Amino acid sequence: MFDLERWEEIFDTIRKNKLRTFLTGLSVASGIFILVVLLGIGEGMRNGISKEFEGDAANILYIWTGPTSVEHKGLNPGRIIRLRNSDFQTISQKYEDDLEFRSSVYRIWNGMVTYKKESGSYRVEGVLPDYQFLENSSMVKGRYLNYTDHENYEKVVVIGNRVSNDLFKGAEPIGKYIEVSGINFKVVGVFTDPGGEREENRVYVPLSTGQRVFNGSNYINNMAFTLEKADNFEAALAASNKFSAEIDQFLKEQHVVAPEDTRAITINNSLENAKRFYDLMDMIKFFFWGVGICTIIAGIVGVSNIMLIIVKERTREIGVRKALGAEPLSIVGMVLHESIFVTAIAGLIGLISSLALLELVGPIIETEFIANPAVDFRVALTTVIILIVAGALAGFFPAYRAARIKPIVALRDE
Amino acid sequence: MIEIKDLHKSYKTGSNSLHVLKGINFSVAEGELVSIMGSSGSGKSTLLNILGMLDEADSGTYTLDGVPIKNLNEKIAARYRNKFLGFIFQSFNLISYKSAVDNVALPLYYQGLKRKERMDRAMAYLEKVGLTDWAQHLPNELSGGQKQRVAIARALASDPKVLLADEPTGALDTKTSYEVMDLIQKINEEGRTILIVTHEHDIAEMTKRIVNLKDGVIIDDNKVDQIKALQYV
């Protein structure tokens, strides 16, 4: 391998057989190139789609209530079920270790919001500080609500970007007072939400303030939880299904609701929905891998073909070399050395150029469904190595056979 | 130098067995220039191939420079060919993508010589065959006579005991043939043992001994008065 004379001989051969070298290299380089670009676009699509779905924390559970639809323990259907602070507290305490974020929500109906002469009707809710993370909101200005606000019944408010634009027309909102259903609240923050305008059209006040000021007593409209991250999707799904079933049972017992009554207490497990999305992602992944593997197979066949032709073409040369004193092993070594060298260089060229293409063109082709197309470098390198090994194997057998042909037969070959 | 006793060789083609050599006894001393003649199918090329270790005999003994040549594996055969023999072929068998000097240097590569020494030796042999100016040319840029002279230089490069030439003038016109024969005679006069297979009488008469082969046996083996090729050039 490190025999300088051998390398000279190989380079000499490569230099003087440019077309042959070029064709071998092209089939390897294009195979790698296509594979890496495909994998990159596949990854880009995965990223793009998961971005589309990342509006809310993906493993969120929403709980809300409605009128009962089934008679239970002598109680008539149509009875309104309302959640209370105690429900939320019990669940929070019981599942302390399992929950990542939690918040209950008190909805303030007819939320007219006014600043000076501007006013609008927005969705106004009393929430806990964790609600920021449940909604995946991030702050544009100021801060979100915190527990001190909650404990002290502060009259503070965070508003969505859209609300800020509507009411303040670009002026500084922080520290200003706005009227919510006739009561003054101080703006402490402006948030943005990946869910877009619809979710920026909201106004949040501390839960305790909301309940006290708007006669909410200890009622809440819904609750939202996220569970701690699990190792994989299957585990996350199992945990959230278990949690969902347990709190469903708990709440139905608390509020004397029939176990089969799904309208009275509804739990929306977003992970259940996410499963379809994950399945789609898997499908995309499998598709691109399928195409990629087919490309590799085509590449291997191409390389093997060229190797066969090269060895066939060189049969006579091999005969001459043997007549001049080449040992069979040196013949096999020569052919392999050359083929491995060419495929390795070509493979790396294909790899580098495809990575460069992804890097350069990636930002340009970014759309709603393609984001940050990139490829795992190790995967790409592995495919290069697979191709090299395949090329070497494909070259080995004909080379071995050619080296075993008696020189007299090889020399007769026209 | 070469000692052959009771050499047999047959080829199997399907169900038929073709007995090509039927007991050849033959010896060549050092410094001889021998031509082996015969019509096609007489077995002369087969004999040469066996002498060149390119092919194996079925039975009989073959001794080359005191070394018994038998039960050779590929590796040892290759080593012996490199050390003992130089080949000159009818169709030259130069490697098409290598320049003249690289072709000449190739046997030296298999002897394990360093590049610089290979090149120096190869240039010396090219000079000997009068092709110094053509050293960097590829075979397809050379005429037939020039190609054969490159091939002769290559055969000489490894300084072999015996040169084996299989119809060396078969692909050349008469004038070029004589030029090549002149070169071969000169090499012989330096003491090199040379065997030539040919079916051309004028070529055979330029050697010092003619061995006639017919149907796999030697029918006659005579020393002849050598005709110098130089007078025709």
TrEMBL record, chain A:
In its keyword annotation, does this UniProt entry include Transcription? no
Any GO MF annotation of the entry: transmembrane transporter activity
User: Which keywords belong to this entry?
Assistant: Cell membrane, Membrane, Transmembrane, Transmembrane helix
Membrane as UniProt keyword = yes
Q: Name one GO cellular component term.
A: plasma membrane
Per the record, membrane topology reads: Multi-pass membrane protein
The lineage's top-level taxon is Bacteria
Which InterPro entries does the entry link to? ABC3_permease_C (IPR003838), MacB_PCD (IPR025857), Macrolide_Exporter_MacB (IPR050250)
ABC3 transporter permease C-terminal domain residues: 291-407
What stretches pass through the bilayer? Answer: 21-41, 286-311, 331-357, 377-397
The residues covered by the MacB-like periplasmic core domain are: 21-239
Compartments reported by the entry: Cell membrane
Q: Which family does it belong to?
A: Belongs to the ABC-4 integral membrane protein family.
Q: Which PANTHER family match?
A: ABC TRANSPORTER PERMEASE YTRF, MEMBRANE COMPONENT OF TRANSPORTER-RELATED
Designated name of the protein: Putative ABC transport system permease protein
Task: Tell me which species this is from.
Answer: Salinimicrobium sediminis
TrEMBL record, chain B:
InterPro entries to which the protein is assigned, alphabetical: AAA+_ATPase, ABC_transporter-like_ATP-bd, ABC_transporter-like_CS, MacB-like_ATP-bd, P-loop_NTPase
Q: Which PROSITE patterns match?
A: ABC_TRANSPORTER_1 (PS00211), ABC_TRANSPORTER_2 (PS50893)
Q: Name one GO molecular function term.
A: ATP binding
Pfam families documented for this protein: ABC_tran
Q: Per the record's keyword annotation, is ATP-binding included, yes or no?
A: yes
Keywords tagged on the record: ATP-binding, Nucleotide-binding, Translocase, Transport
> Cellular component per GO?
membrane protein complex
The ABC transporter domain is annotated at 2-233
Q: Which family does it belong to?
A: Belongs to the ABC transporter superfamily. Macrolide exporter (TC 3.A.1.122) family.
Listed name of the protein: Putative ABC transport system ATP-binding protein
